[in-house]
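Protein data:
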Amino acid sequence: MRMIRERSGTRGGGGPARGRLRAVLGGATTVLLTATALAALPQTTAHAADTLGAAAAEKGRYFGAAVAANHLGEAQYAATLDREFNSVTPENEMKWDAVEPNRGSFSFSRADQIVDHAQGKGMKVRGHTLVWHSQLPGWVSGLGATDLRSAMNNHITQVMTHYKGEIHSWDVVNEAFQDGGSGARRSSPFQDRLGDGFIEEAFRTARAADPNAKLCYNDYNTDGVNAKSNAVYTMVRDFKSRGVPIDCVGFQSHFNPNSPVPSDYQANLQRFADLGVDVQITELDIEGSGQAQATNYGNVVRACLAVTRCTGITVWGIPDKYSWRSSGTPLLFDDNYNKKPAYDAALSALGGDPGGPGDPTAACTATYSTAEQWSGGYNGKVTITAGSSPITGWSVNVTIASPQQVVSVWNGSPTSNGNVMTVRSTWNGSLAAGASTSFGFTVNGGTTPPPQVGACTAS
């Protein structure tokens, strides 16, 4: 069995970049698979044109989602994330109040959970965010200029060092400019006490902490040409002319009927790219429904594809119900994880096929139960039920947490990808409408947490 060294928890001093301990699941009939046997198993991959991440990768880009650690234990959430996306952004888990609630005392466990999950699925990770006026712990606002400068630089250094080599892009500074027509800087502890130079200082500190990570400035209401985006443009142009290390600019792209996708969206992305930086769509969500919402999503994707240095798109959440503005139904999946017309439009704009053979449907369901349990393990049972039409085959992803190990599987054919086991039908693939079958597996190495069982995919 292949092992990668586990990281040790880091508190306070940040410490070296982390290693991992991750047991690779094997599908075996009676015994735990060896590394050699595991390598011989076919590895599961999605059809390139049938998911957002795979279609974006064909265009040399990523398609990611903002992820909340507390939802990763939900089977449909994890299954949709793992199937559709090839990049993740922690929604709140890397913000200052989450990782340094008390000065000099760092807590990375929730962020680590997301990074570990992403790495186990071969996804990229965006870091969000290092310096921001919001979600600051109270102790930051009470510091004088000298202490604040020291705290800012230490925070950047410790967080980036902890994740060195594991984050492809960092939002180093977030939302530092005011809304409206002034183009002025926003009042914040950093701006008010350190002055205009705090952004440059943050970027220089970030470059020293991880020379290989892309360093981004990120903001909202900068999607078209306006006073705010002009102010950001002027700053980036100045930074590039003086050698200040900035690699990318993030455009949050929160749209609604009162703030629609601007007509000069693509041109605005292009003018920033022409400065010699990458551009990224970092927090995309578009309120609405039906064809109007779908058209807007398609237009955003096409704008990114038209700009060579637009390297990727991140949507700010997965199902509507977990969106920060859920009443506006702004995401690609509804509350039950059904794909919306906006999903089809985004995938089509990427060159994918929304109706392709790899597209999971609601033609079958998978439910989990523990059949037997003992002190060191358990037998799991997954029941597959066909929907309103017959099916001829099925597959289900089962995620097992380390140090648990699958030692046998029956009534199904297993393959592996990291800590995810995909079980496909064998003799029991053909089911009449409403009929059921099941497969089982034995796990050693503990009884908690329970396995995560993804959605059933019918063929």
Residues 1-16, 19-48, 357-362 have pLDDT under 50 and may be disordered. DSSP finds 13 helices and 18 strands in the chain. Residues 145-162 form the longest helix (18 residues).
